[in-house]
Amino acid sequence: xxxxxxxxxxxxxxxxxxxxxxxxxxxxxxxxxxxxxxxxxxxxxxxxxxxxxxxxxxxxxxxxxxxxxxxxxxxxxxxxxxxxxxxxxxxxxxxxxxxxxxxxxxxxxxxxxxxxxxxxxxxxxxxxxxxxxxxxxxxxxxxxxxxxxxxxxxxxxxxxxxx
Length: 163
Hints:
Layout: H1 15-32, H2 41-69, H3 73-99, H4 111-138, H5 144-162
Helix pairs in contact: 2-3, 3-4, 4-5
């Protein structure tokens, strides 16, 4: 275990933390009042901030935790694969945007590639991530917070399959 880890620390989760973490992105968008103008700086920075926050929650934080604790190789491997897939999607979108500027979506030559990237970016967080965490959580001893997360991930998976 790393020397920076305090073994005696116990986290106090409360309703305030859950509400803040859930409602912050929503209120951030509402408070900034995104406009439909193409040259609005908000239209550039909000998607960028959204992407950064999404990547932090999806793979950066689990990767940092897995490197810190060292005994969670499943999470480390999953986070690295997730990171590589998201970086590939971002790089391919940037390269394609540079190669084919100012064309409509239906004019694109690589429509199949970008359709698969869009499907991946939608289905991966909705199906693969909950399945992974259901497997990880179900292999541990259950604590009340683990049970809450397990129920939430199962609900998310069921809703994704039914939708």
